[in-house]
């Protein structure tokens, strides 16, 4: 793995741009495929070099499913949790599809068993075959028919199971012209991401009825146009903090896009930071840090590393609750946050699922961090370097490709000097 030296001692105010939101684009791509809006025009207008790797994975997977059934198709999901989980269901509901999935060792060890069980229960009796290697390949042969139109899945491991099955229900509704349901058992984690899936289904013309923990696709009315794709609120999290420190602003900050990580606008306010909107979806944060912050991994899991970086430069301790889900992301992110805070000279204590973060009294001149291949750990380490003025040696900077390929270019725009 390569190393990058990050020097934040020549910062300048700049207008920073996030990439397209991978979570939104993944949903839109599947729905464009199902409803005849392929290729998705709003994705085609995104600069090719800025497309998140996970969006490419999802797109290639859908392209494989659009080919006539017959030969076994290979789909490499690389490090993409949502792409893999979404594509497995789409493959399972494509009559006669034969797909061999592969991915990184880390993706292979992340949980997906409950999603497979749900698919086998609903589609297995009609011939779904789903076999697992150790952990790869995962090989799937889809049945030609279905029977009882309901998927049942637990909610506490990942919202991606329910999102994936709901997108599968939309496919089955169109094919079979009968309602299909997803029944979520127990409490749903990361519920905002299922909301995002519902929003996209509705934008593409589906009616989804909700009762208690059951979501049923009951109707479809083609929309006039495929909806446009928004900027990514997860990436805006880093950029807003960087712009706060440098006196800059961010673009593509659309408050109408209810991505869970938009929660940053509310969560930084108790710490003393106020969002100010400008023209054309620009935004900046104003104010002086005056207190710690509190955030929950149940609401916005991907934002917690970003908020931990901010927590390191606040004048009081911060509290991150429900942090358990962070253990099963692209790396063990709970461990990653604790390592970052310690490398920066701060302290963390974990009690149950609550992490308390105490910043150091003064920033170090320099700190080192290993991303362990996790894009968010790479980008929050760099964000902390900018926020604090401390130089950073980062091992494994390439992984930003997953969600934000242009991240290092944005850093250079704001005066950060990068050297290998
Ligand atoms: O559905 C999605 O697009 C996502 C859901 C979340 O995962 P979990 O539901 O597993 O927490 C989130 O962490 C991930 O980055 C993207
Ligand atoms: C957890 C993430 O993505 P995924 O689960 O899709 O790999 C993420 O991007 O932080």
Tell me what you see in this structure.
With 420 residues, the chain is an alpha/beta fold. The protein folds into two domains: 3-19 and 231-419, UDP-n-acetylglucosamine1-carboxyvinyl-transferase, Chain, CATH 3.65.10; 22-220, Enolpyruvate transferase domain (UDP-n-acetylglucosamine1-carboxyvinyl-transferase, Chain, Alpha-beta prism). It is 35% helix and 21% strand. The strands form six sheets. A four-stranded mixed β-sheet has the order 18-19-1-20. Strands 3-4-6-5 form a four-stranded mixed β-sheet, with helices on one face. Strands 7-8-10-9 form a four-stranded mixed β-sheet. Helix 11 links the parallel strand 14 and strand 15. The longest helix is centred in the middle third of the chain and has 18 residues, at 159-176. The mean pLDDT is 97. Phosphoenolpyruvate (PEP) is lined by residues 80-82, 302, 329-330, 376, 403. Its EC number is 2.5.1.19.
Number of domains: 2
Low-confidence stretches: none
Oligomer: single chain
What is the CATH class name of the largest domain? Answer: Alpha Beta
Query: Could you name the CATH topology of the largest domain?
Result: UDP-n-acetylglucosamine1-carboxyvinyl-transferase, Chain
Strand order of the largest sheet: 18-19-1-20
User: In angstroms, what is the radius of gyration?
Assistant: 21 Å
CATH architecture descriptor text of the largest domain: Alpha-beta prism
């Amino acid at each position: 793995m390569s190393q990058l030296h990050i020097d934040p001692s020549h910062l300048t105010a700049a207008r920073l741009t996030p990439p397209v939101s991978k979570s939104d684009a993944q949903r839109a791509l599947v729905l464009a495929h199902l409803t005849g809006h392929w290729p998705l025009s709003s994705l085609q207008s995104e600069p090719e070099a800025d497309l998140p790797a996970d969006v490419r994975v999802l797109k290639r997977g859908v392209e494989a499913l659009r080919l006539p059934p017959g030969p076994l198709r290979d789909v490499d999901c690389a490090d993409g949790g949502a792409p893999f989980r979404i594509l497995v269901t789409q493959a399972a509901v494509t009559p006669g599809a034969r797909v061999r999935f592969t991915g990184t060792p880390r993706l292979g060890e992340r949980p997906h068993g409950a999603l497979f069980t749900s698919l086998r229960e609903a589609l297995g009796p009609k011939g779904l075959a789903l076999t697992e290697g150790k952990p790869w390949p995962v090989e799937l042969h889809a049945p030609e028919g279905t029977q009882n139109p309901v998927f049942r899945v637990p909610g506490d491991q990942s919202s991606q199971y329910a999102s994936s099955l709901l997108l599968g229900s939309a496919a089955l509704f169109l094919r079979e012209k009968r309602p299909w349901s997803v029944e979520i058992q127990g409490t749903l984690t990361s519920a905002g991401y299922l909301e995002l899936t519902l929003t996209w289904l509705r934008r593409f013309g589906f009616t989804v009825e909700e009762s208690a923990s059951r979501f049923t696709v009951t109707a479809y009315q083609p929309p006039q146009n495929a909806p446009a794709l928004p900027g990514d609120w997860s990436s805006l999290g880093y950029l807003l903090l960087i712009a706060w420190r440098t006196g800059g602003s961010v673009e593509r900050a659309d408050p109408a896009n209810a991505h869970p990580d938009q929660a940053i606008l509310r969560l930084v306010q108790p710490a003393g930071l106020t969002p100010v909107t400008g023209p054309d979806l620009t935004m900046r944060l104003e104010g002086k840090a005056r207190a710690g912050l509190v955030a929950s991994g149940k609401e916005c899991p991907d934002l917690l590393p970003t908020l931990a970086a901010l927590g390191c430069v606040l004048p009081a301790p911060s509290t991150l609750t429900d942090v358990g889900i962070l253990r099963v992301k692209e790396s063990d992110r709970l461990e990653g946050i604790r390592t970052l805070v310690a490398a920066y000279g701060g302290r963390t204590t974990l009690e149950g699922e609550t992490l308390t973060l105490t910043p150091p009294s003064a920033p170090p001149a320099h700190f080192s961090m290993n991303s362990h291949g996790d894009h968010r750990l790479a980008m929050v380490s760099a964000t902390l370097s900018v926020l604090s003025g401390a130089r950073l040696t980062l091992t494994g900077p390439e992984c930003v490709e997953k969600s934000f390929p242009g991240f290092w270019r944005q850093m250079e725009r704001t005066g950060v000097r990068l050297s290998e």
